[in-house]
């Protein structure tokens, strides 16, 4: 087999047969970067597209086992993947989102076969049977519109083929992983109708061991099926129907990273929280101790007075071990169903395309939020559903003597989203039983939702196994804080983009998009310890409109070199906070200034693509866990600038050898603004701080060697290593009191793969080891006053396995 046939593993993938012309050189090898993309909603060569885009064909995806953003982040410059209890939070070039639930919409937009995926929890559902993935960096405000401020990720599945084909893939690995995937394609009516059906089941045991109940968690069980019909009604009319169904069951856990002792006091030094603190330290909390209480306790603590001890579990360090301690079993179940129809009409001088789609998504999430064996706070459950309809029309073609290449379109989006969340706080029940004077018990006070849980004595009992209550042995019900939102969202847009050829080498482009967004929400807030008058039932609506677009020029500096520059504007709609009775947040906007070049040189032995950018970011949406609410706010503004590079080097003097990789440098900083930290202990100026999940350096390296060994076939050895510098998970950059744990130290992730292909090319065996260094970094880190701690969700440990695949007919 020729070396070119496996070059799809490079960050800038080569073309797969059937996608585009092979673009072969004199040596019979396909040219570097010779893949066709549809990033600008028209077919064009990757190296001819004047924008920063990374593309991966089928071979690249299969080799690196890329199924979603979790793996993409180690092959794409400046892309960072994060996840919080099932909600995906992507960042590109430092522009990202830490939002969750119905109010949180993505900043990096995801599309599947041209259909927008609106819900955060559906963005990380693994994809398979893909023809390619395209990652567009920078605001895509013209062609992709809303919520594409950071960029877009486009997943394109394989179309049915009229020639028969079948494929089967078996994977086995440690942690009991077993995966089976297969598909079949072929003609149903010769030259008129073709079909494709694929299915996948992937399951494994848990990565992490709970020392509290002795069980393993962080397991995964995924079933997915896809079906498609290609109908050629006439030579000029083609219709593609697609349906997909995915069900994923997992038990991702939240782990304690750092305690905030001045708020909760739950630590090895104060194992009973504020009960362990000397009474004079607590004397300033209104209503906690009467003068007679203070006289009775003296300089001692409540724990000393009653002789209480806490037989709880010591919490392991989540960056050093897969052991953890949770008193409540976490579980997340996601169901996603999608249906779409794409009709393409060849009008001669233009092409009209219609994409109609309907998607239903459901998530049921249960998680121990405090990350400890203490019964402090759990989500039991959070239920979220979405019913989404989209319609898009595009008209594209050439005009003005083929000098103008244009795309015009209209887009409609409607989503009915429902959120119901129950936050269970067992310690509130204990608090009510204990409330009042130590010397003169009184009826419990009204729980004040306007104050954080901690000043309301949420954590006076930090573990359910105390063996003794103070004043009232009566069993009190767990505290319950329920909030919900029933939200209807609608978006309408008109857009147009044109590229005019000023000469054979010089082109100018202009694009505009007008968007109207409307949201109508009914919010509720309830608690079993709050009188009816304190509940929230509120109906609100708001609307926003924006004009976004781009303008640019590009120039062919040579047969293999493209220079380009452009200015663009991105927009993300505002919304409402479902966890509060009041409060909304504004849209965010981004101005982008970018210049870059793409080139292949040394007679097709090397490829280098680079881009430099400057961003002016305003009204930035971010989340803070202040008091008893997860609140989305707007920071004033920020500036960012950076440099990206992607490269492939394939020297002919070392036949079969290849180097490839990518990298990014980003400088980012917020403007001056005073914000209160989650515990309420300090008001800090975030000016000069880095943006959330905007690492200064992100470097990806790859090397491979392929050789033929006689009748045995072809062997390929590949190694990959990715470096990410320090990452901050909140706007305070770990500078808030006792919250250094929100910062993630730099880390390396390295993988190795050995591939064997027999000479008949029907089979392939891959042996792999991923995360060789057993590095466990945080997908997310959150500081919260509710739990008085920093908690996080962490990446998988080192894994290994083998994959055997078989392809027949047109699937080869």
TrEMBL record:
GO CC terms, sorted: cell outer membrane
UniProt organism field: Hyphomonas chukchiensis
UniProt GO BP: iron ion transport
Pfam families in UniProt: Plug (PF07715), TonB_dep_Rec_b-barrel (PF00593)
Membrane protein topology class: Multi-pass membrane protein
Protein family membership: Belongs to the TonB-dependent receptor family.
Sorted UniProt keywords: Cell outer membrane, Ion transport, Iron, Iron transport, Membrane, TonB box, Transmembrane, Transmembrane beta strand, Transport
PROSITE patterns associated with the record: TONB_DEPENDENT_REC_3
Segments crossing the lipid bilayer: none
InterPro entries membership: Beta-barrel_TonB, Beta-barrel_TonB_sf, Plug_dom, TonB-dep_rcpt-like
Keyword Lipid biosynthesis tagged: no
Cell compartments where the protein resides: Cell outer membrane
Name the UniProt record assigns to this protein: TonB-denpendent receptor
Domain TonB-dependent receptor plug: 46-152
Main location: membrane
